[in-house]
Specification:
heterodimer; A: about 475 residues; alpha+beta; six-stranded mixed beta sheet; about 30% helix; B: about 250 residues; alpha/beta; globular
């Protein structure tokens, strides 16, 4: 390597500035380029003859995966140097705070933990949807922008579903950071997005209690405790911690992946709507399981060890979020039954769905901004009761269901915003009925939602009765569309 | 420069035409035929003539074991393969046979090596079907990128620390970066007789400048190709293979 990374030197058009950080894996420099405005950072791997090849492997992995990722939750990649000559990555310098600084400040209040946790879950969901698993989530690798958005950094250990996994064969037991690594990663698995959800559980635990649930294991034997030891319940450390937060944290930290949350979107949802959470025994646990139960887990972990290694990858979107919009302002609307039938059909195709029922009521005299209706108002309660009445015939378990009454002057804007924030996979709503045929289709809630939704939209129409209309003259003509 | 890597066409003209059309649309500038132009399928002469024209226009064409068996019958083949070879032999003109017999077994254009089977003794038709055989193939080729066929499945092998190779089953349609500081062996799959229970034709595109490979699957009228095999009086099992991709 002949190129020298010293302040003032020029590399491929980038002027090297001050060294911001020097770590075991490499150095970070501030850099500038006339064609790329804004603060930039250059990441240079530390690699000299005799150095660990893992440095370069992590760097190669990151340089393969980062260009594939888009969205606000990953740093923008500006340039990458030739790996064989001048290896470097130039990234957008994230304007924000490293989460490590925040967790150092000791137990954070529950609403703050929920807010930041939901933002981290949003970021994980954004990355998982693109086929990438981070596998090294920890406060050090999490940046929070001033607007509250979270950015994940350092994809050196990440896994991409459509790329060869360079690390799979190389560093089986070194994957992840010891305090945060999931049980299945300890066993060598690198293909399950739910491993990131376990690490998120550790981060939530740390934010809420200022303690690490499993300490800092220094040996492989200590790390294998992850396969059978459950953490001290967070409420045993911080008695004022609300049961719902303990429920969420302990569900993230389940040893068996199938007992955990299945998607980051679900965690984000629960952290944002704790009042909708169905609490289990996890919420009220006051101590770790006894020695006998732990011995049982230890024995089972030993038995399944070879079997788990070969486990097939977890299918993405195993728990689709289905958002159904019900117009509770018009409880006698004939479309309600049709929407219920359609919802039932959709739910029958998925075992692990979550149904989110939403009603939007007008917020007259208020701003157009979407706000959850005041939980104490009679109006809110009345519409909640109507929503519950609508969904009751479906006989769904409460942990699959949530009910929301929103206030907004624009039902379509409110639905779209809610669908986007809560990572909906499908929106079900009624199409304008025969009585609304007179109104312009493109002004309907259904058309606006269908045109702008972040996901698929299922429009439900009550079948026409014979002779009830539908003459050619009634049909929407393309001539009616705004030019 | 984008290269289209096509192997194991096996006399399937419908599949070959579909792949060539797909490759042209994807911007392929150079065609590489990794062998086994004939055998199994109903159109050996048409396939050979099409590829001869491409060879005259600059395409790389290699000899596979089925092309080789036209001139010197192979004892290792099973009965239906032998029947198909006998049939192809009478379907090809002397001219076409001479073209096949003169094809090279291996071509090196550093940093790339093309071969039908393994770069280790290409004339022995060893399969590159596991990390160990991929490793010996990469070491024998001596090139950064080795492209081969013969095994009718798509697979990508990459070299790690201490030379050992790992296998990766590619997802069709996504470009995979192959950084040049390690060795890679890509098995491109079969155009004319895929065997992974998917009838769609298989081939690969290699973008030399970007160092990226994209494995492709191209649906084509495989039922018509199977029907032609039956109509030619070839063993019914060969038609079934094309119909079901087995």
């Amino acid at each position: 390597m002949t190129v020298r990374f010293v302040p003032g030197s020029l590399i491929d058009g980038f002027t090297i500035g001050e060294r911001m950080h020097s770590g075991a894996m490499g150095d970070l420099y501030r850099v500038a380029h006339p064609e790329h405005p804004g603060p930039l950072v250059m990441k240079v791997p530390r690699f000299r003859t005799g150095d660990s090849i893992e440095n370069l492997l992590g760097f190669e992995t990151e340089s393969m995966i980062l260009p594939q990722l888009t969205g606000p939750h990953v740093p923008r990649l500006i340039a990458a140097g030739d790996l064989t000559r001048t290896p470097y990555l130039v990234l957008e310098l994230i304007d924000g705070q490293n989460l490590e600084v925040l967790v150092q400040r000791g137990p954070l209040p529950a609403p703050e933990v929920a807010r930041i946790g939901a933002a981290i879950a949003d970021a994980l969901h954004g990355v998982h949807r693109q086929g990438v698993i981070h596998l090294d989530l920890k406060p050090d690798n999490i940046m929070e922008r001033p607007d509250g958005t979270v950015v994940l950094i350092d994809f050196g250990l990440a896994h991409h579903a459509r790329f060869p996994d360079l690390l799979a064969e190389e560093k089986r037991y070194a994957a992840g950071s010891a305090p945060y690594v999931s049980p299945e990663q300890v066993e060598g698995s690198r293909h399950d997005p739910r491993s990131d959800l376990f690490a998120l559980g550790v981060v939530l635990y740390e934010m809420a209690t200022a303690e690490l649930p499993f300490g800092i294991p220094a040996t492989m034997v200590g790390l294998r405790d992850r396969l059978w030891v459950d953490p001290k319940p967070p409420r045993a450390r911080v008695p004022s911690l609300p049961p719902w937060l303990q429920e969420i944290i302990l569900r993230c930290l389940e040893i068996e992946v199938r007992e955990r949350y299945q998607t980051a979107a679900h965690i984000a949802f629960d952290l944002r709507h704790p009042d909708q959470l169905a609490l289990t025994s996890r919420a009220h646990k006051s101590r770790q399981v006894g020695i006998v139960a732990q011995a049982g887990r230890w024995w089972r972990a030993r038995e399944r060890y070879p079997a788990r290694r070969g486990r097939v990858a977890h299918a993405r979107n195993a728990t689709p979020v289905i958002l159904v919009a019900i117009d509770t302002v018009h409880p006698d609307d004939e479309r309600h039954a049709a929407i219920r039938r359609a919802t039932e059909q959709v739910l029958s195709t998925s075992a692990e769905f979550r149904l989110v029922c939403v009603s939007v009521i007008g917020a007259f005299g208020r701003s157009a901004e979407v706000t959850p209706a005041d939980a104490n108002s009679d109006l809110h309660l009345e519409h909640l009761v109507r929503l519950r009445h609508w969904v009751d015939p479906l006989k769904l378990p409460t942990d699959r269901l949530s009910l929301h009454v929103l206030e907004s002057l624009s039902p379509s804007a409110a639905l779209l915003d809610f669908a986007r924030r809560n990572h909906a996979d499908l929106v079900i709503l009624g199409a304008p009925g025969s009585t609304q045929r007179g109104m312009a289709w493109w002004r309907s809630v259904a058309s606006t939602v269908a045109a702008n939704a972040p996901c698929s939209v299922h429009l439900v129409r009550v079948p026409e009765r014979p002779g009830s209309g539908g003459t050619v003259e009634d049909l929407i003509s393309l001539d009616d569309l705004p030019q | 420069m984008i290269l289209a890597l096509l192997s194991d066409i096996h006399g399937n003209l419908e599949a070959l035409n579909a792949c060539l059309k797909h490759a042209r649309q994807a911007g392929a500038e150079r065609l590489v035929f990794l062998g086994d132009l004939v055998g199994y399928g109903a159109d050996p002469a048409a396939v050979v003539n099409l590829i001869r024209r491409e060879a005259a226009a600059g395409a790389v064409v290699l000899r596979g074991n089925h092309d080789d068996a036209v001139a010197s019958p192979a004892s290792y083949m099973n009965d239906s393969a032998k029947d198909a070879m006998d049939w192809a032999r009478q379907a090809l003109s002397e001219d076409e046979k001479a073209f096949l017999a003169a094809l090279p077994l291996i071509v090196r254009e550093d940093p790339i090596c093309f071969v039908h089977a393994s770069a280790v003794a290409p004339e022995r038709w060893n399969y590159v079907d596991c990390p160990a055989s991929a490793r010996s193939c990469a070491e024998a080729s001596g090139c950064t990128y080795t492209f081969c066929g013969h095994v009718h499945h798509q697979m990508l092998f990459f070299q790690g620390r201490e030379g050992a190779m790992s296998a990766f089953r590619p997802v069709p349609g996504s470009a995979i970066p192959m950084r040049g500081h390690r060795r890679w062996v890509a098995v491109v799959g079969s155009v004319g007789q895929p065997r992974d229970r998917t009838p769609a034709a298989a081939y690969a595109l290699f973008d030399l400048d970007r160092g990226e490979i994209t494995f492709c699957r191209v649906p084509y009228d495989h039922l018509a190709a199977a029907q032609k095999i039956r109509a030619a009086g070839l063993p019914a099992a060969l038609a079934r293979r094309v119909e079901l991709g087995i």
